[in-house]
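TA notes. Do not distribute before section.
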Amino acid sequence: QMFKQKNMNVLKITFSLLLGLSTLVSSAQKFDGYALYNLQKSSTAFLIDKDGNIAKSWECNNNANYALFLKDDGNLIRQGVVSGAVLKGAAYGGILEEYDKDGNVVWSFTYSTADHQSHHDFTVLPNGNVLLTAWEIKSTAELLAAGKSSTSEKWPTHIVEVEQDGTGGKIVWEWHIWDHMIQDVDNSKPNFGVIAEHPEVMNINVSASGGGGRDGDWFHVNGIDYNAELDQIAFSSRFMSEIFIIDHSTTTAEAAIHSGG
């Protein structure tokens, strides 16, 4: 759910879904105006007022995964569950689409292969580009070579910035947490160092509660936002119980080094 809220008072909203299939009771922060809502595993997005009345709905091509966004021009940006996904972790998505007010697809971008998969959240930049959180696969051999003790593959986080390209999209910037790992167990490996002296990188052997359970979702990143004033990206990790801030004012190459990314 995404709500535009004015204060922290609690408001209970009750509204009937289209076609009278069911009634949803939702506790949310009080807001003045409208709220945007889409149930997971449902293809219908709703814009509702503070009394729970449906002001607008969109019938979308795919079931919702987690997040959606209403633009100033009334268009809806939404991540859906792509068909045939290989990396099926929590809240996996894989397809980003923008719909106009009449429900027509303006552009669509798929980020789902056997090697990478977008999931959970996204955020829209002031220039209209979209930042997606995603997984990528690192094999057991790659993990061991980087100084991590592991008996299974992991799916570390990366972030891609997608720009509309006609009716599709293209990646114009990316950042990978895998580029920013340090370890202190094997001095024969190039990423060896004193962890406490390097807050700009991640301890590859950090213990992430719940990480790598039924799948390789290592950090379980499930929220992302952007600070336009500072040109910084914030994202949250459920398994780490931490929020990370990275700089966005770099090229992709600069984002792969510790001084720039």
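Switch to the second chain here.
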Amino acid sequence: IVVFFAVSLLASIVGSICGIGGGVIIKPVLDAMNVMSVSCISFLSGCTVLTMSVVSVYKNMRAGKKLNLRIATLLAVGGVAGKMMFQAVKASVGNENFVGMVQAIVLIGVTGITFVYTIFKKKIHTLTLNNAAVCVIVGLVLGIMSSFLGIGGGPINLMVLGFLFSMSTKESALASLYIIVFSQVTSLVQTVVTGTIPPVQLSYLVLMVIGGLLGGTIGSRINKKIEDEKVDKLFMALMFIIICINIYNTYKFAVAL
């Protein structure tokens, strides 16, 4: 339980700084520990990420950080729709090891593409989309992807916000966290309403939520002082580590099938 708290705290600090939510770190690390089912880990990760994101968005907005509310809200609405669509499909798949293996494989690809994009983003010509319908469609795709991966969507959000909407690193980070709040609230409400809350121990849930709360507070303070270039370097280091962890998880789930 101490390890779970430490993972949630550290992931939330880094997630708050980079705008990745923390789920992309929490889920692969806890999956690799092989101590809980995929659904239990996804639920704990989601609750932690929701707490961290709410705290981070509140503190950044209060500090006067720039956020394009129109674009972020349209993307969030599309993301909510995408998440609801995916949950209906996921309910028909019963093999958790198969789900975990496919999630790990896709996460390797997503983080790999994001890693490469971050390295070369200064050389890439970005777009500035503004059409409401297009924003909702983009959000829909992001919602489906983040739901499938069980990670909140952070890394994908950052790449899309930077490329399609020409947002700076810190702008993307705040907008990503804003979108993640909507996504995680929807996920939690769906889980409660459908009565599909996995059998997790309350002590684990409470400590991980506290980790998210503390992590969001600490990460927001660090984000105010750190430069965009350092945020990018931290983000790339994380993506490399996550790719390695997911390669191991792919093997682990495949063997368990």
